[in-house]
Amino acid sequence: MIHVIGALVVWALGLAVNLRLANGPAHDTRAARLAVPLIFGATILIMWELIVTGLGVPRVILPPPSEIVATFAANLPLLWGDFVQTILKGALSGWVIGCGAAVLTALLVDRYAYLRDGLLPLGNFMAALPIVGTAPILVMWFGFGWQSKAAVVVLMVYFPMLVNTVAGLQETSAMQRDLMHTYAAGWGKTLRKLRLPAALPFIFNGLKITSTLALIGAIVAEFFGSPTQGLGFRISTSIGQLDLGLVWSAIVVAALTGTLVYGLVVFVEKKATFWHPSQRG
Amino acid sequence: MSDALDMRSRSKSGTAALRVPPVLTVVLALFALWYLAVVPMNVQETLTRAERAGVAITPDSALARRDTGNLALVVGNTHALGESWSLERPRLPAPHQVVSELYKSTWVEETTGRRGIVNSGSLSNRGLVYHAMVTLNATMVGFLIGTGLGILLAVGIVHSRVMDMSVMPWAIVSQTIPIVALAPMIIVVLYSVGVQGLLPKAVISAYLSFFPVVVGMVKGLRSPDAMQMDLMRTYYASSTEVLFKLRLPASVPYLFASLKIAIAASLVGAIVGELPVQKGGLGARMLAGSYYGQTVQIWAALFLAAALAALLVWAIGAAEKRTLRRMGMRP
Question: With an 8 Å Cβ cutoff, are A37 and B166 in contact?
Answer without folding.
Answer: yes
